[in-house]
Amino acid sequence: MTVAVLCAAGAVRAQSAVSAATVAARVDRHYNALRSLEVHFVQTYTGMGMNRKESGVLLLKKPGKMRWTYTDPDGKLFVLDGKDGYFYTPGTSEAQKVDQKKLDDLRSPLRFLLGHTELQKELTGVQATCGEGGVCELSGVPKGLEQRVSSLKITAAANGTIQSMTIEETDGVTNRFAFSGEAGNVPAPDSVFVFVAPAGVHVVEGEPPV
User: CA–CA separation, 111 vs 57, rounded Å?
Assistant: First the structure.
């Protein structure tokens, strides 16, 4: 009886591992085939005494370019030109310039949307659970971020499209991104990823904002 139970448990673990690898490969195939991507996002941030919800449009381009154009709050902007990141909030007189290396902890999990990755190798303790319609949740901890991130959960459709991403940090903060209306290989000229400060706004060296 004991041997049978152990064998059954081993079979379940093997089945789960295959399932996680299959889901990860499905997401990899979808995003690694894209050169650029536009998607609507809703970001919900809770913890450290804050409860914030923001939304807008995210434009990505390989390699390493991002533009977050917020519609709520209107005018807020984050641009990553492949080298530096620029944060601007309307009504302020300064825009923060941050070296890309300092952004690793802040937005590393979102690099999965840029493609050229292997989720199975990027995460430790990978698990997957699937529901109706082939929608699956893939969870694990991003390698190198173990001290900050306790869990990363990715919900993906059957075709590999990421529907949401939830980042649970070790200090109790939860950062969730819900994505919709994804469009792949959209026009994304390099000029779109160049930050142009509004009149009267000064660019200063800063730190990644919360």
Answer: 16
Spatial separation of the C-alpha atoms in residues 118 and 190, rounded to whole Å: 26
120: left (phi over 0), alpha (psi -120 to 50) or beta: alpha
On the question of a cis peptide bond just before residue 90, with omega within 30 degrees of 0, the verdict is no
- Which pair of tokens denotes residue 128? 């997957």
Q: pTM for the whole thing? A: 0.83
pLDDT in tens, 53-92: 999 999 999 888 999 999 999 999 999 998 899 999 999 9
- Between CA 148 and CA 95, with CA 51 as vertex, the angle to 5 degrees is 75
Nearest to 126 by CA among 153, 145, 95, 158: 153
Indicate the SS3 state at residue 205: strand
Chain centroid to CA 154: 9
Q: How many CB atoms lie within 10 A of CB 150?
A: 16
CA torsion 66-135-123-168 (nearest 10°) is 70
* 3-state class (DSSP) for residue 118: coil
pLDDT > 70 in the chain, percent: 84
